[in-house]
Amino acid sequence: MEMNIELLIQVVYFGAAILFILGLKAMSSPVTAVRGIIWAGIGMLAATLISFAHPGMHNFIPMTAAIFVGGVIAWWTGKRVAMTDMPQMIALYNGMGGGSAAAIAAVELVRLSTGGELSHSGQTSQVLAVLGALIGTIAFSGSMIAFAKLQGWMRKVYRFKGQQIFNMAVFAALLYFGWTLTGEGFGNNELMIFFALALLVGVLMTIPIGGADMPVVISLYNALTGLAVGFEGFVLQNPAMMIAGIVVGSAGTLLTQLMAKAMNRSLTNVLFSSFGTGDDDGGGSGMEVSGAMKAINAADAAITMAYAETVIIVPGYGMAVAQAQHKVWELTKILQDKGVRVSFAIHPVAGRMPGHMNVLLAEAGVPYDLIYDLEDINGQFPTCDVALVIGANDVVNPAARKDKSSPIYGMPILDADAARNIFVIKRGQGTGFSGIENLLFFEDNTRMCYGDAQEVTQGLINGVKAL
What we know:
The protein is of the alpha/beta class.
């Protein structure tokens, strides 16, 4: 009977792993993303329920209570959170995953420190438990700082002289105490110092990084969380955790590389430079800006858009903050009714998380066939009558091509400056998160529509309707 139960458990874990992989694959396309989430969710549910059938499993009441409380909180927050706050939610939940992996490792290591044994003893399991604890704890505290930055609770970027040397010293101390935990005879003091240092490393890694780099940071911590879960799955000999962790870790690693490539920067540059902070030592363009920003009201801009043949809309974080995606789709439909061909151009790092703009446009009901990636749409800007930029900054900044002294020089951008007319919706004349002056705003064919993105878009809608 016990053999049959073990076989059933392994079969369910195998099926859950297949659902994880198929779900992640489906999430790679907006068309099948919902289906992928459902498949992965079913796999997670099956893996969770079958865990109750493990021989020797006990503490069913605390386990059930924890699942119920966690499920209710997740359901409630998932229903209430605005789509514009998704980056914060992703950072928070990712941190919870890393923290959970670290908590599992902590239980196993406490068992060792008090003279017990690991659930599946062995030197390899002990080393992996320490690695999972280290990585998961860093991912937890780092993700919490990322959440605070995205939520606006921590607006300041903290930098000090000798910061990198200090960080390296703390990390070296962390590695030393981690090494002591891989042997015998360590105590609770070493264990507590180890976790305290790991928490501190996650904080120190994230506090100097500005908002412009948050998409890469979130992807990196996602990869670290997956890696930690995979290690702890090996420690517990749980195939579902191993496979889920490996899949998430590898996907997060690939996504991090793609995000860094989209910014034409290395991961070390993201983590250890001051770009994205808006500080004097990291932001700014060395090229002298000539000309001035030229304002236009929504009514006048609407006339040009209504009589255009092609319009390309470039959404950015300003659209997310103003929650203007529904108004933008309304404007699109009105323009289409007048025979205007409208497309959306998405930069890989637009917004505050990978796919942020895609999520917002999907929520508003924008069809997927109107949304184009950078590589697919850049060639259309030279023949475009109007490029409407809504709250985007660095991803349309020509300094990436023209100014070799700029921190973003060489970064692939959307060639909005090649359009015949450019209208930029922006709250004011500031430089945005990265602190780099946007040369696009000073181009002869650029006009600035100042104001909240939702209000300005409503003005465009009214203007087009009036014609």
